[in-house]
Write a structure and sequence with these properties.
Helices cover 26% and strands 27% of the residues. Helix 1 runs parallel beside helix 2.
Length: 249
């Protein structure tokens, strides 16, 4: 870890609610804070009953908790390398009464094998850092730095872990910077995760894509679907109808 990064202290926590107060999520006021990216990713997954989902780089547990709320018949794991965030994620799971369906694991994804989860899993999901380790200013707050820059998790680390953990036919889904989509797709195919669906995400209807939502299948055949783009903000500057549906009941 670069010497200039500062470990977070006992920061003040804030609470965010979803689904008319049905979900409550605490997070650091000044440390890592999840964004709409994680909410979009959790709302775009459609697992079958009984399937197992692993979120790599879970932060405060937002993706597993939102998934478990929407899909009470699935099992979800959240993996987080930062001890303070893993502890906060576990607290959020307990606060929402989801201990029987969501497990938080404090671990480095590079050390994981399928046996960690009782065998190969059905889904790997991730909202990983978008920036290369040496690109731009690195935030001095360690939680924010690791969430934004490839310091503890590189793209090859992530896709390699997905290959190890997924069953044949299992699905990998990630939301990533649009400008790095070529790297993402190349790395997926290198690890025999065939891209199957690419959906561009735009701030508004007049802007270029800022993010890309990618789904791939381990050892899948060729063929890619390009659905209509997802627009985050409508003409009034508020969230679009689709994004609002991911936040409301």
């Amino acid at each position: 870890m670069p010497a200039e990064l500062i470990e977070p202290g006992l920061e003040q926590l804030t609470t965010d609610t979803f689904f008319s107060g049905g979900i409550r999520l605490r997070q650091q006021r000044r440390g890592y804070r999840f964004s709409i990216d994680a909410v979009i990713l959790s709302g775009c997954l459609h697992p079958r009953p009984g399937e197992t989902i692993v979120d790599l780089g879970t932060g405060c547990g937002v993706i597993p908790i939102l998934l478990a709320f929407r899909r009470p018949d699935v099992r979800v794991w959240g993996v987080e390398v930062q001890e303070t965030l893993a502890a906060l994620a576990a607290e959020n799971v307990r606060t929402n009464g989801m201990q029987s369906r969501v497990t938080v694991l404090g671990a480095d994804l590079r050390d994981l094998g399928a046996d960690t989860f009782g065998g190969p899993v059905d889904w790997i999901v991730s909202n990983p850092p978008y920036r290369r380790s040496q690109s731009g200013r690195v935030n001095p707050n360690v939680e924010r730095a690791l969430a934004r820059h490839e310091i503890a998790m590189t793209l090859p680390d992530l896709i390699g872990a997905a290959r190890r953990l997924l069953k044949t036919g299992g699905r990998f889904v990630a939301i990533y910077a649009a400008e790095r989509v070529a790297e993402l797709l190349s790395q997926m195919r290198l690890e025999h995760i065939e891209p199957k669906c690419l959906r561009s995400i735009h701030s508004d209807r007049g802007s270029n894509a800022c993010l890309i939502l990618v789904e791939g299948i381990k050892n899948g055949g060729p063929g890619v679907v390009l659905p209509p783009p997802l627009i985050i903000y409508d003409e009034s500057g508020g969230y679009s109808k689709e994004v609002r549906s991911l936040i409301s009941p």
